[in-house]
Design brief:
With 519 residues, this protein is of the alpha+beta class. 63% of the residues lie in helices and 9% in strands. Helix 2 runs parallel beside helix 8, helix 12 packs parallel to helix 20 and helix 20 runs antiparallel to helix 21.
């Protein structure tokens, strides 16, 4: 047993050495021996556990399922310990995995979710060093006051409340000092280890995770990019008066320090906070859905980290309106026009339960013969519900359990699918799961209004695209008329649903029923 683990560790170490030796831009000595050794050892132990624990048990039996669940749990706990020990990029990747509720076995997502609350904190001395290096001044020269305890700490940075010399209260986001230097090396280490594991388990298809980290981490580590994203989305969604995005103070912002307007509120999944403050839970859920439908289907510029710490709610004392505050703008997905149109049409087909078009557009998005699984992953509904229409009935507890169980049962197919779909889809799937988690916490999941808002955005997006491709005035007018009629039908249906659920609607139905029986 020990010999096998030692062999696997040696193989990983040798592969790492060869890989790094051939890369002239990296010095292998930059890797901390402890960090690398810890990652190799954890990978070896997890791999050995999967190789041996299920070997002599009949596949598909109750005992096999039970043992597999235990191995998943042990492996998830080891992975969590590795992320907490190596910090930085490891925690970021672990958080990403923990957000994939309906795509990975529950043992992993449940165990890794805690990484959102176990991110490291930089010391006061480290914070002072970053500010001194980037802004050229000491904290006391820049701020009247600066709170030592961070408002929140994440895998890459932490945020402090401070007051500027002119009296403005600000939030100061400061990058952990070692993250920049370690991130590229950590990703390289993960890539090597995943390649080794894939040699042992050919069905293990998680290279997409490394590819996403390679692409996104440099962007997330550039706080000037985050500031530009914040301003862009604020301008793009300026018609939504319920949305608030903190203003950026560019004169005191760098790639590692971001100063922004201080905003506070309750987390978007805190139903008790909303009830205490007189905030309509259904309105918040509906507005959040509108926000993301607009970003995804209409604009193709999507905030991809809507975990509860990044989405706050607050009631405005003056107007009494509830605001949604969108924070942390480091991770955005830009959707190409062709991808966005296929995605719009796929969702239209899913809402209408048009299986031919579901198959057509799923295949166009890379799902191939796995399109039924793809439809279930997108909607977090069973294939039976997809066929009947996802807007017909809300998600039942038994269906939710079925979907989570399928995430474990179909893990090889899910990972293969994630490897095949366009890279743009990966962050959308993560975003979908985070939004569903919020809806579940608020008990507003799968309401009819969310699908109606989605339908509106899809109709507008497709119509705008068709007009842009048409050179005929008559054809553009025809498209606009079809768009107006479709939106009018949705408005009429929404009115019907409102009447059906209201006291006035009940009286009207009772009156019509009485008149019918009287005649």
């Amino acid at each position: 047993m020990a010999r096998m683990v030692l062999k696997l560790a040696s193989l990983a170490a040798a592969t790492s050495g060869i890989y790094l030796y051939g890369n002239k831009f990296l010095d292998p000595n930059d890797f901390g021996v402890v960090r690398v050794g810890r990652a190799i050892a954890t990978t070896a132990v997890i791999t050995y556990d999967y190789l041996t624990s299920l070997r002599s048990v009949p596949y598909g039996s109750e005992e096999y399922d039970f043992l597999k669940s235990q191995v998943h749990l042990r492996s998830a706990e080891r992975l969590r310990e590795l992320c907490c020990a190596n910090r930085g990029t490891f925690i970021k990747v672990g958080q990403h995995l923990g957000a994939l509720d309906y795509l990975l076995p529950e043992e992993y997502t449940r165990t890794l979710k805690v990484l959102h609350s176990q991110a490291p904190q930089s010391t006061r001395q480290e914070i002072e060093q970053v500010i001194r290096e980037d802004l050229g001044k000491e904290i006391k020269e820049l701020f009247l006051s600066f709170e030592d305890t961070p408002l929140g700490a994440a895998s890459l940075a932490q945020v402090h409340k401070a007051v500027l010399q002119d009296g403005r209260t600000v939030a100061v986001k400061i990058q952990h000092p070692k993250v920049q230097a370690q991130s590229s090396k950590d990703i390289l280490l993960m890539e090597v280890l995943l390649l080794v594991v894939k040699q042992i388990f050919p069905d293990f298809e998680f290279m997409w995770l490394v590819e996403e980290a390679k692409k996104n981490l440099p962007l997330e580590l550039d706080f000037l990019n985050e500031g530009r994203n914040a301003e862009k989305v604020a301008h793009m969604l300026k018609n939504f008066d319920f949305l608030k995005v903190p203003r950026i103070y560019w004169e005191l912002s760098t790639r590692r320090v971001l100063l922004m307007e201080f905003m506070e509120g309750g987390q978007v999944n805190d139903r008790a906070y909303m009830e205490r403050n007189g905030i309509n839970v259904n309105e918040i859920s509906r507005n959040l859905g509108r926000l993301y439908s607009e970003m995804i289907f209409v604009n193709g510029f999507v905030h991809c980290d809507p975990h509860p710490g990044n989405v706050l709610v607050k009631k405005c004392p003056a107007s009494g309106k509830a605001h949604i505050i969108l924070l942390d703008h480091g991770l955005y997905q830009v959707l190409s026009e062709s991808f966005r149109m296929d995605y719009c049409r796929l969702w239209q087909a899913l809402i209408k339960a048009d299986m031919k078009r579901v198959q057509k557009y799923s295949r166009r998005l890379g799902a191939g013969d796995l399109y039924p699984l793809f439809a279930c992953m997108l909607t977090a509904r069973s294939w039976e519900s997809v066929n009947r229409g996802i807007d017909r009935l809300p998600v039942s507890a038994s269906e939710d359990v079925e979907i989570r169980s399928n995430a474990a049962a179909y893990l090889p197919q899910i990972t293969r699918l994630l490897n095949n779909v366009p890279r743009q889809m990966l962050l959308l799937l993560k975003t979908n799961d985070l939004l569903r988690g919020i809806e579940s916490a608020l008990h507003t999941r799968a309401s009819a209004s969310s699908f109606l808002n989605m339908s509106r955005c899809c109709i507008r997006a497709v119509s705008t695209y068709q007009r842009s491709k048409s050179h005929s005035l008559y054809r553009r007018a025809q498209i606009s008329l079809t768009e107006a009629l479709s939106l009018w039908q949705i408005n009429l249906y929404e009115l019907f649903l409102w009447l059906k659920g209201s006291q006035l609607g009940n009286w009207v139905i009772a009156l019509l029923s009485w008149m019918h029986h009287s005649t």
